[in-house]
């Protein structure tokens, strides 16, 4: 039978037209003024699988930090809003809805969001996706609020505002003079108009040498730092603060100082309009303590590794010398010793990993591997090691990722161990894996004690441990820190969703290799 070259050509042309149409649609979405997201209703928790550039701008998050999350993460801790119930009910019914809701950007600032949600259905009338169109209406909300205030409280507002300005001016002056931190107030031209006593004493300068001078000309021009100047010039027009900017400099008379600078625009009207408040924290001693601590960890862990390896080898010889008629209590004691040797070896390994991360020497052996099989094998190994745990595995991604497979297994083992450890009254643990846009998302959920909002903000910091479990559960607080750094080094994201008393879900994403 002869092939039809014309038919093949037409099919190829149709395919090219379809791809061109898709590219055009994506360009159109990214050019839209409104924020647009698409969620996958067929996956657990309806995760975001696409967002356009406008949504990144509105929320302050990058695409990598958005993909895989449920939309509710934008409400942060403001979860009592009635609109959240409206969204939930609309999604359950597969219907569209329109609401106005309070959301929070990555930097914590509030913005009002006008949200349109529409379902996408397949040929079987099943809702497969939801499309959300979002507009920042903060300016309109503020204008409405201001108009109401002006209509009902004009005279009272003038009186209260006058008193507030006086109180704020007095309050600010008191803070500047009494706080145990160096503070400077600059005008719009970066001229120092106020310096507190702590600044003068710390840097051994006088008021005459400081007030009335441009910040970048102070002393021997030690504050004339190009990157700092660039960031400060962005504060007044954009109101973007400078957070924890580190300065390492040798000053006259006082020597080397390492400092954290935080700079904010002062928004008081009148005398303090368009001014910048700079807070300077001296962290020289803390930096030195951290350095000594890192040196100790590195030396101690290396020094402990060698004798421990010898002890483990000698102990294995003792185990092999045991005969069949050996006292069962002796065998039991040997098993306990072996468990503690393994536990100590794991602890030293974590300390070594922490030391390598801090020194920038964490090695990655990057190779492609099947992530589904790796996760499933790790779950099965944990089931064998902890038979009492009720571990469930679900989902698949059918994806190849490039990374250090052993380190990814280490991350999952750490999350599973924590889930078992901190859920003493509930043995059920759920592990799932799904493909979310260009990423693989792995989730580990437990039904344990949960984590408070404040603790969630610090839980991936080195040596941090949740306050109320320190005495009940032993540990150094380095497992999650190491896991977080491993995932970051794989260009992924690790985060936690949790409420006290309701368990925790740790999620991490990894980019798919050669995603199509």
TrEMBL record:
Subcellular location: Membrane
Record keywords: ATP-binding, Kinase, Membrane, Nucleotide-binding, Phosphoprotein, Transferase, Transmembrane, Transmembrane helix, Two-component regulatory system
GO molecular function: protein histidine kinase activity
InterPro entries: BphY/WalK/GraS-like (IPR050351), HATPase_C_sf (IPR036890), HATPase_dom (IPR003594), His_kinase_dom (IPR005467), HisK_dim/P_dom (IPR003661), HisK_dim/P_sf (IPR036097), PAC (IPR001610), PAS (IPR000014)
PAC domain span: 97-149
Catalytic activity: ATP + protein L-histidine = ADP + protein N-phospho-L-histidine
NCBIfam families named in the record: sensory_box
Protein's name in the database: histidine kinase
Organism: Sphingobacterium zeae
């Amino acid at each position: 039978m002869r092939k039809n070259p014309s038919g093949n050509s037409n099919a190829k042309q149709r395919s090219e037209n379809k791809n061109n149409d898709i590219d055009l649609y994506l360009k159109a979405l990214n050019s839209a003024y409104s924020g647009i997201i698409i969620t996958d209703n067929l996956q657990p928790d309806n995760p975001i699988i696409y967002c356009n550039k406008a949504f990144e701008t509105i929320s302050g998050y990058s695409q990598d930090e958005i993909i895989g999350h449920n939309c509710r993460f934008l409400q942060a801790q403001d979860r009592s809003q009635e609109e959240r119930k409206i969204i939930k009910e609309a999604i359950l019914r597969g219907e569209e809805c329109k609401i106005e809701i309070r959301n929070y950007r990555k930097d914590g600032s509030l913005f009002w969001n006008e949200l349109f949600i529409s379902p996408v259905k397949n040929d079987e009338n099943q809702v497969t996706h939801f499309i959300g169109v979002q507009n920042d209406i903060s300016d309109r909300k503020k204008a409405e609020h201001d108009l109401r205030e002006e209509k009902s409280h004009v005279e009272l507002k003038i009186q209260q505002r006058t008193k507030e300005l006086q109180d704020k001016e007095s309050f600010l002056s008191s803070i500047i003079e009494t706080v145990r931190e160096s503070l400077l107030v600059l005008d719009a031209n970066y001229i120092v108009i106020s310096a507190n006593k702590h600044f003068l004493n710390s840097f051994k300068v006088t008021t005459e040498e400081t007030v009335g001078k441009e910040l970048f000309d102070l002393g021997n021009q030690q504050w004339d730092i190009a990157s700092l100047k660039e960031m400060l010039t962005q504060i007044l027009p954009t109101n973007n603060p400078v957070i924890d900017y580190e300065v390492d400099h040798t000053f006259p008379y006082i020597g080397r100082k390492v400092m954290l600078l935080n700079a904010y625009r002062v928004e008081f009207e009148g005398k303090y309009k368009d001014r910048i408040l700079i807070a300077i924290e001296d962290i020289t001693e803390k930096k030195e303590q951290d350095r000594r601590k890192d040196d100790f960890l590195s030396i101690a862990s290396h020094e402990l590794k060698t004798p421990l390896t010898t002890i483990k080898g000698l102990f294995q010889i003792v185990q092999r010398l045991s005969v069949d008629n050996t006292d069962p209590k002796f065998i039991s004691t040997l098993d306990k010793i072996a468990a503690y040797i393994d536990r100590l070896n794991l602890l030293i390994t974590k300390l070594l990993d922490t030391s390598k991360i801090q020194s920038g020497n964490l090695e990655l052996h990057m190779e492609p591997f099947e992530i589904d099989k790796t996760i499933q094998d790790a779950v099965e190994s944990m089931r064998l090691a902890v038979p009492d745990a009720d571990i469930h595995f679900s989902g698949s991604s059918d994806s190849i990722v490039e990374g250090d497979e052993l380190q990814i297994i280490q991350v999952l083992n750490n999350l599973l161990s924590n889930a078992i450890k901190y859920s003493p009254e509930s043995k059920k643990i759920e592990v799932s894996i799904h493909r979310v846009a260009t990423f693989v998302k792995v989730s580990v959920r437990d039904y344990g004690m949960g984590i408070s909002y404040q603790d969630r903000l610090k839980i991936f910091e080195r040596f941090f441990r949740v306050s109320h479990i320190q005495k009940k559960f032993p540990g150094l607080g380095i497992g999650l820190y190491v896991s977080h750094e491993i995932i970051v080094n794989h260009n992924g994201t690790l985060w936690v969703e949790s409420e006290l008393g309701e368990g925790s879900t740790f999620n991490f994403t990894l980019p798919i290799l050669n995603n199509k």
